[in-house]
Amino acid sequence: MSIEIVLIILVGILSYANGANDISKGISTLVGSGVSDVKRALLWGTLWTTAGTLVAAQFSTAMMKTFATGMILSNIPITVVMLSVVIGTSMWVWFATRTGLPVSTTHAITGSMIGVIILSGGLAHSAPMSNLIAKIITPLLISPIAAFALAFAFNQLFHRRIEKLNASCVCMTKKPLARIPVFAIQTSSNNTLVQGMSMQDVPVQLTPIHGTVEECSKAASVVAKLGILDAAHYVSAGLTSFARGLNDAPKIIPFLLLAPAINVIPLYGYIYIGIAMALGGLVSGLRVIRTLSERITSLSHTDGFLANIITSSLVGLGAWFGLPMSTTHVSTSSIVGAGVSQKKTVSWKVILEIATAWVVTLPISAFIAAVTAIVLQYFIS
Questions:
Q1: Which pick of 209, 262, 356, 370 has the fewest CB atoms within 10 Å?
Q2: Are residues 250 and 351 in the same domain?
């Protein structure tokens, strides 16, 4: 098996692991607030993440360039660098997913790149390391702080107003079938006019009603009912999942585009990554969803909606301007900020577990990548 095929397979594994760990970041609020069951939320998040991945092929070139430049080293072959970074990232993200810990793929890629740069002799003032600090590490550090602060502030300012939407509802009612008399004049066989009457069914009509949840529940013949905040929450979860695809796919695509012997059309590479991410979320995303939706804090409808708005806005803007942000860090910080703002019980034990995983992500992924690079240099020149 050629090195190029191995790299393509490893990129698929990395994308699968990313999908398994990160699918929760967009939909955990739907599950935690009771708006949706897990299966429906998984399908919804996967749909919008895949859409974001495909749109990234056209609009996220800045993010792709940010990560691509960090992997070009003068004294280590590019193939060794990419294989090492992919392996270091995949192993750690997959381990975290199996244990139910939400970790950042961005964080793990950065740690793996740091490990290989240090191995190459690069120190803090080297060009690759300076690029990492300026363009990658700084946004990673600032974004969770901003997410917590914004979620706290937005809940303080808008929580009561949005709560009112929770009582609003739109429903469709069906009028009962009715029969009305219909008069007609007909010509008989002897050419005389005869007036007749018959009964005719009136077609069923659907009528929309906007009111409170109680009014919709009491309305006669309701065929469909949707809460206003339910719909808004679904939209916010879709936007967060879309932003995640827009943010994460450009960090993985350089592993395919920079390989010397892999002539892949970028769109096809994004499709490949999108399919692998979707499969990872659908098949293996449940454990991390449980952590974010149940173990951190109890989420109300409004808490989840506002947390998603903050997450999708920050991550989407970061993807547009090429500033890498961890959807994991931003989403978790938004959820905690919402919980603290409403003085809800927050499981600081779980927060400590997640924070510990974040802290050790850099050194562990760096170590794995560096060891991998040492081994691979004996076989790849």
A1: 356
A2: yes
